[in-house]
Every structure is written in structure tokens, then in C-alpha cells.
User: Fold this.
Amino acid sequence: MIQLILTWLFSIIVFPGFFFTIALALFTQYLIRKWSGRFQKRMGPTYVGPFGVLQPLYDLIKLVHVKEEVIHKYCMPGLAKLFGLIGIAAAISVIVFYPLSPFRVICDFDYFIFIYMVSIWIPLATILMSLSMPGPYTSIGVSRFLTLITLVEPAYFASLIVPMIIISENNKPVYSIYTTSINVINLWINPMTIIPMVLALISSIVVLQAKSLYNPFNIPEAEQEVIAGYETEFSGPVLGIARLLHDIDVTITALSIVYILLGGPYPFSHLSIPGLVILVLKYLAVIYVSTLIKNLFGRYRLEQALYTIFKYALIPSILAAVFSTIYVVAIT
Amino acid sequence: MINEIRLDNPIQAVFYIVINFAILLVVLGAFYILLKPGSRRKTSIYLSGEGEEVISFKSITPSTLNLYWFFIKRFAKKIYEHLVNTIHTGNLMDWVEFMVSWYGLLIIASILTTIIYMFMYKG
Assistant:
């Protein structure tokens, strides 16, 4: 029993919880900045740590610990920080559903709990943080952010549920992230299921881009139009927490694509070298594709972005879900 | 050492997640207090150089409709206008064509579903 509790605490606080997730989120930010620098013929982060790898950590500590907090009379910085910390806690708390965790929670419909924590609490925390530091530009940014997530989050849900619909037909527990992750590799080698899987993957990549607010979907923070949108009044610790929440959101979304759609390390185990290599390569590939899109596109207008998400994320994910349902009915 | 907790009821999983959430909030709060934020400076609201008299408190706390302004006024309105322009052209045949095409699609979908159910699902 004591060993179980210790493993649980280790999973939440050390690996793959608090420390690991934050480290991975900051490393992901480093990779995106470094690769973006290379795409734009710049050096990218260089000075802090070997190859500049500690630059995001340094930036975070600087913002949270050193920088001045600039507020006006309508601001509630304490509330903003609390909402930010709630968002980060919500994002990391579901990490025990991933097969990566030494303490795994597996049950029927755990995917819905995951979606509730990730798709509801992270955007809600961001919005409430922003509304705690109000301003006219902030309101426009929040309005744009809400508009974007109205389409993005349903597409995220629909794209990840595609393999679950098929796998839950013959495997227990149903609609479970763990069960899907260890079996999804079979869907990529079945000619009947590869079409919905490809549609779901395309949709999830567009969703990752939109959730990350990277080009071409960086409308809520468009600096020329709305100064910095929902982040306009953020400074010092509030900005540091908001950036960390954003990076963790990117990491958790990328990990969900790697595990639920691409199968993580399977058919190898996490503790084997081929499994570890495959897992790392898949994660890097997802982040690389996102960075590539970020650097290839300019910013869309809001209605262009909404139609793009509608056309390349929501419709393909719903079609994929319909195809997988038809497939399940046909084989039963 | 890997511990797999297989639960029968998703409510039990919610219980685990809530405990995780609470522990993480305490850890995050402790780290935040340990880091001791720097100084705080009070300034006027950022309005691109304008004074605060150009706005009221009401204008910086948006209403729910304003938060969805872009969705309702731009995106949803375009879909609405598309529907209106397709159906309400003043020509009755346009309306009939629109309704028949969608009903046709629904009938085909229902026939296909019935066939799949009768011949495949029921075996």
C-alpha cells in the first residue's frame, strides 16, 4: 500500500507529472524557437545552457521571480495567477492516463475525463486569467480566443475519439486512452481503417496548431491589430504563468496525438530502446510539423482561420468518426 | 515498478484525478511562493496612449454576447446568410430543390443504415 502511494506521488510530482511535464514543455518551447530560428536564418536560443537549451527555463524564472508586475486599478493579479495555476494543475493531473506513467489509471470512458480536464479547464483558465487583468484589447483577444476554441475543441475531441470507436468494439476497457494507445498501431496497417486514421491525424495536426495559437492561427494575440490580445495586460509572474500554461497545453496536446493516434512506443515497450526511440521520434515529428506550419504560413484573418479549422479539422474529424462507426457496424 | 489501477467505474477515476489536481495545486502554489515575485508597479490602463477618460468600466468588462461577437456576427452570420440566399431567393423551385436534396440525402443515409443493420449487424 505504501509502495502504491509512493509510486502515485512519484508519478504526479516527478515523472511524468510536475517536473517532467514542465521540463518537456520548456524543452518543446526551446525546440520550436530553435527550429523557427533556423527556418528564418537566425541562431535561435544560444546563450543559456548547452546550445541555449536552458533559455526557456531562464525566461520563466526571470518572469516569475525578477520582473516587475505592472498592474492598473482594475487588475486582480492574485486571481489571475490562481487561475493560471489551476489550468496547469488540470493539464498535468491527467498525465496518469498516459501509458508513460508508472502509476496508470485505466477505466471505461477515461478519455472523457481527460477531455474535460484538458479541453475545458485549460482554455477556461486562460480566459479567466485574461479577464482578471481586463482592458479593451484584452476583451477583443478573449473574444477571438473563445471564437477559435468553439471550433477547435470539438474537432480535438472528434479526432481523438476515432481510434477509440473502433478499438472499443473488441477491447476492454472501452474509450480508454491506455487501451487505445496499445492497440492503435493495428489500425494503421488495416486498409479499411487507415482512411479514418489519416483524416483524424490531419485534423489533429490542424487542431494542435490552432490550440497552440501558432501561425496561421495566432489571431487572439495578433500584435498589430489587438496589441497582444488576451495577454495585453499580462506582465511579470502572470505572463510567466500564462506562457507556462500555454507550453504545457502544447505538450499535452502533442502527447495525446503521439499516444492516442500514433500509438506511442508500441509495438515495443516504454522500457526498451526501440520503444523509447520510436516514442521520441514520433513526438519530435509532431512538434517539427507544427513548427514547419508555423513558419510557412502568415497569420489568417479570423474568418479565414475559422473556415480553415472548419474545413480541415472539424469536417475531417467528424467524417473520420462516421467512417469508423460504419466500419464497426459492418464488422460486428 | 509499474502500478496499474484498473477501475470498474469512471467515477473512481474522477476521484484519482481530483486528488492529483489538489496535490499539483499545492505543489505549484508552494513553488510560486518559494520563487517570491519581484516588485509591483501600478500604472494606468494601456490604451495606445489615450487617457482613461475614453473608456468606462463597462467597456473593459465585456458582456457574454461581446465575447462571442466574432463567432455570432462573422462566422454564424455567413452561414445564416448562405442559407437565406440559397432558400429564400423568391423562387419557390429553389426552396423545393434545397429541401429535396437534403431530404434525399437523409433518406439515402437511412436506407444504407437499415441495410447495414439488417444484413450485417443482425447477421
In short: The radius of gyration of chain A is 20 Å. The mean pLDDT of chain A is 91.
